[in-house]
Amino acid sequence: MSQTQAVQETAATKEWEPRIVAFLCNWCSYAGADLAGVSRIQYPHNVRIIRVPCSGRINPLFLLRALQNGADGVLVSGCHPGDCHYISGNLVARRKFALCKELLQYAGIEPERVQFTWVSASEGGRFASVIEKVVDEVRQLGPNDKLVKKL
Amino acid sequence: MTASQEIETRLRETAEQLLRDKKVDVFLGYEKASLPFRTTPLFVTSPEQVDRLAWNPFCTINLAVYLPRLFADSRRGGGRAEPPPPPTVGIVLKGCDLRAATVLIQEHQVPREKLVIVGVACPGMVDRRKAELALGEHDALGAGEDGEGNVHAVIEDGVEVKLSREDVVAEACLQCRTPTPSMHDVLLGSPVEATDGDGDAGRKQTADFEAKAPAVRWAQLREALADCIRCSACRQACPMCYCTECVMDQTRPRWLGAGTDGSDVMIYHLTRAFHLAGRCTECGACARACPMGIDTRLLVRKMNQEVEDLYGYRPGDATDTTSPLSDFSMDDPQDFLTEP
Amino acid sequence: MTEKTIAHTDLDRFLDCLKEAGTVYVPAKDEAGEVRLAEASNVESVALAYRNFRMSPKAFFLPQNQTLLRFNEGRVEEPAPPDQGTSFLFGVRPCDARALLALDEVFLSGDDEDPYYKRLRENTVVIALACERPVASCFCTSVGGGPGDGAGSDVLAVALEADLLLKAQTPRGEQLLSSVEDLLADAAPEAIQQAEELIRSAEDQISPVRVDNSAELLREQYDSPIWEEAGLTCLGCGTCSYLCPTCHCFDITDEMRGKTGRRVRTWDCCAYPLFTLHASGHNPRPSAKERWRQRIMHKFRYAVENFERLFCVGCGRCIRNCPVNMDLRRVLKRVGV
């Protein structure tokens, strides 16, 4: 089913479905996601993809803001180390991500809500598996109530 | 003469010499405050003023916080076509303060050659709130130090109350790993042994917190930050927070609200901890400045430990190292990744 | 002006009567042993022995975080005021009560009244408690107030040995006292005298600060070099403004999510570097020197010129809590006030 149909159905049945925001780097992970689509590999509809030039573009505030706006989970995916289109963007990012993950976990936010991975442009199947895993883990946790801001 | 008084005398002599010989344009030190258990920063510009300089157990302020602004104009030009030349600044720095200045030098905010560092080996400074609490119902009218480093507070009717140093020393000082400034142009005071050289006390604190269930940690963190009024005193008192426009104040885009909404409070403190990872030298200036008495070092302590464990880096060790988040290695650990 | 007494042992019954009329806030020790204003229904025992609260009660009238409007898909709505009824603040110190008069000048005088402030002000009854033991940083007597000053409050209470003396200050205060008259006795002359002695003794403990002609002298000293020296050490941390009972500067921001959002008023501080930053990039108060000068000028000169009132009540919070011991008493002295 399409994303829109899924959202409508959720609203209709009022059964909660996790909403995952995925930041994908343009050159590898986004292409990998695209390959999954082109190859007609089915993966859960719960993910909203945001394309960034490089995983090094990710500011931890993006992740916090996504959670604040009501995302149940956040995924960040980039090129495998050594394959970055900008040579070292993902290497710099790797340190940021490691610390960010530790910080959020330390603060008591469930580690499954913010996840990081490397997916290359040729790994359509891997992308689908990652989404399956993340959605499944977040579904088990239930809706996010931490950092959510009610306006 | 107590050890502090000896240091004070030598400090004044040193400052006077530097100002008289025009080796510095301004000398940053401490002066007696208008209330007990405190000092106030002093910017000395002429040799005649050096007698105002003080050294005592209440010299808690991290003077490195003033360095970026002293060099800002010469770096950015202050709106003028020809930027003014940078001043030469003499400054009194304790162990933790010196580490903060080291990070500022490393991050090119302050030129080393324009600093004359008067380092002082620090036995730990008094937390004024602990001292005031120790006095209970009584008000201190004045406070001084005895030969053993204990604090003597004068309360009403001229009665003297002795407060032992270890009871009123600041939390940050109980976890001090480098009391003696390693980089200096002049060093005053005999070297002091670190109360927590290996950082075990700090590690135990984070380990104890981490041992709790995630939901408990979240609840306790919310509780600890419940009093936060978003004044940003922690940020303003921090030598490492020198951005002319902080991301928290940015309006395009606006990252978080300005109020005390629980979510905004959490994001403010989480972001600050992240921005200080591998940069904070744990001087405690933030906790001291917080008007609500919040332990603002709670999260950043963990970040520093992670940086040390993952990348073998401690902020403030040297000026010629690369900041950990500006650096990388092909072998950096990546156990945090998700594998499907 | 009605003067009554109530036995300490009847205080709980008095508070119970108030609870029937609204929400009551009383001084109580928190887990850390600090006394602050807490909702009476959560409090086991009222603490009467304290100096002053860390925070001023201005948050009851000007909250740190206040939603002014909500909007959704182009429709704007003012949120219905929470049906909070009346609030009773018991135990506010005279300096903090007096500060409300300064806030009234800002938010209620002039052509337009601030409806948000007005609503809270009209629905909050202030019962001040006179001070017995001022702190070293107190100087209320020098700025027109005093440990037994009732200005700004509806009822002034003075804690005596066996009773509380209650003095009505406003018609609302009179009404309050008459609503509980069964619990009260007419104040005996001895009680009134005891109260006066207590207050006088408290006044004697306060070191005076000279503020006469502050407006004139500050006008003359605007360009004095002392501002450079005095202001250099300010960190711009905001502690002074946020704790100050008269400081009232605020920021208004819109918090959006898609087409929905709210307009929020939050506290702001003139000591912040970005406070006067223009969209052009120009900042008329570019350094700590201008901002510190502004702080002193606003409280001791502009307020006098505009409202004939000092915007400082001498509570001393800014002096006690400033991490670098900026002391406005010291600056006033140096300026020659």
What does this 3D model show about the protein?
The complex is a heterotrimer of chains A (151), B (340) and C (337). By secondary structure, chain A is an alpha/beta fold. Chain A has a four-stranded parallel β-sheet with strand order 2-1-3-4, with helices on both faces. Helix content of chain A is 44%, strand content 15%. Chain B has helices at 3-20, 67-76, 95-106, 128-135, 165-168, 171-174, 200-210, 214-224, 233-237, 262-275, 285-289, 298-311; strands at 26-32, 39-44, 53-54, 89-93, 115-120, 142-145, 151-154, 160-163, 186-188. The mean pLDDT of chain B is 94. Chain C folds into two domains: 3-64 and 78-204, no CATH class; 214-335, no CATH class. Chain C has 337 residues and is of the alpha+beta class. The longest helix of chain C is centred in the C-terminal third of the chain and has 20 residues, at 288-307. Chain C is globular and about 65 Å long. In chain C, strand 2 and strand 3 (35-39) form a beta hairpin. Chains in contact: A-B, A-C, B-C. The interface between A and B is large, with 42 and 47 residues.
Label this structure with key terms.
heterotrimer, A: 151 residues, B: 340 residues, 12 helices
Arithmetic mean pLDDT of chain C? 93
Mean pLDDT of chain B: 94
Biggest sheet of chain B: strands, sense, closure?
Answer: 6 strands, mixed
Which runs of chain B of at least 5 residues are low in confidence (pLDDT < 50)?
A: none
Helix and strand sequence of chain B: HEEEHEHEHEEEHHEHHHHHH
The backbone outline of chain B, from C-alpha atoms, is globular
The biggest sheet of chain C amounts to: 8 strands, mixed
Q: What structural class do you assign from the helix and strand content of chain B?
A: alpha/beta
- How do the helices and strands follow one another from N- to C-terminus of chain C? EHEEEEEHHEEEHEHHHHEEHHH
Q: How much of the residues of chain B is beta strand, in percent?
A: 5-15%
Radius of gyration of chain B, whole Å: 21 Å
What would you call the quaternary organization? heterotrimer
Distance linking N and C termini of chain B: 69 Å
